[in-house]
Amino acid sequence: MSNSSCGDKKMKLLKIFDNRRTKLGAQPIIYRNAVRAIIMKGTKVLMVYSETSKEFKFPGGGIEHDESRDVALRREVVEEVGHVIKSVNESLGYTDQIYNDIYDDKKYFYQRSYYYFCEVNDEYVGMRLSESEIALKFLPKWVTLDEAIRINTLKVTMNNEFPWTERELYVLQLLKEMTP
């Protein structure tokens, strides 16, 4: 596929996660669009592992103002796992999440995450982590789907402090179902 296949083609909704603690009717909503890379090599997937929270997430993050999905995906993959994307292939689909904003309980936070299958160059070029990612001790890690599912399942059932854990577990399980 083309190297810029992150266009606005119709994508499949994978799941809606509604984790609002309080539902007080109409409230202001903060919207965020994000991109996530699914990078498979053989039986392993390249994930971001947090040594602080002991869980896996797909490399990716928020799309900045006036940034295309393709550009955001390429930027986020270098920042979080230190590899340059060689090709952006087909999309898996997207998830929607809504929860109470962590900074203002009178607002909702609504995030749409677009998932794309990607290939990366083997060369490690170095990560460019944000302060919050450094605090979470993000590390790139090639891991089997089973291992990532096991770790994130444990996290979700024990102490799920981050909204991405349940979402990433769902996508990991979906990938596992798709794997022969």
What does this structure look like?
Helix content is 26%, strand content 41%. The protein has helices spanning 69-81, 131-135, 145-158, 164-178; strands spanning 13-18, 29-41, 44-50, 55-57, 60-62, 83-100, 108-124, 138-144. It is of the alpha+beta class and 180 residues long. The chain has a single domain (13-178), classed as Nucleoside Triphosphate Pyrophosphohydrolase (Alpha-Beta Complex). The longest helix is centred in the last third of the chain and has 15 residues, at 164-178.
Give the topology.
Elements: E1 13-18, E2 29-41, E3 44-50, E4 55-57, E5 60-62, H1 69-81, E6 83-100, E7 108-124, H2 131-135, E8 138-144, H3 145-158, H4 164-178
Parallel strand pairs: 1-6, 2-7
Antiparallel strand pairs: 2-3, 2-5, 3-4, 3-8, 6-7
Helix pairs in contact: 3-4
What Rg do the Cα atoms give? 16 Å
Mean pLDDT comes to 91
CATH-defined architecture: Alpha-Beta Complex
Compressed to H and E, one letter per element, the order equals: EEEEEHEEHEHH
Q: Structural class of the helices, strands and pairings?
A: alpha+beta
Please count the helical segments: 4
The number of distinct structural domains comes to: 1
At the first level of CATH, the class is Alpha Beta
Summarize the amount of helix as a percent range.
25-40%
Can you count the beta strands? 8
CATH homologous superfamily? Nucleoside Triphosphate Pyrophosphohydrolase
Give the N-to-C terminal Cα separation: 22 Å
Multimer state? single chain
Can you summarize the main beta sheet? 8 strands, mixed
**CATH fold group:** Nucleoside Triphosphate Pyrophosphohydrolase
Q: Tell me, what's the shape?
A: globular
Low-confidence stretches: none
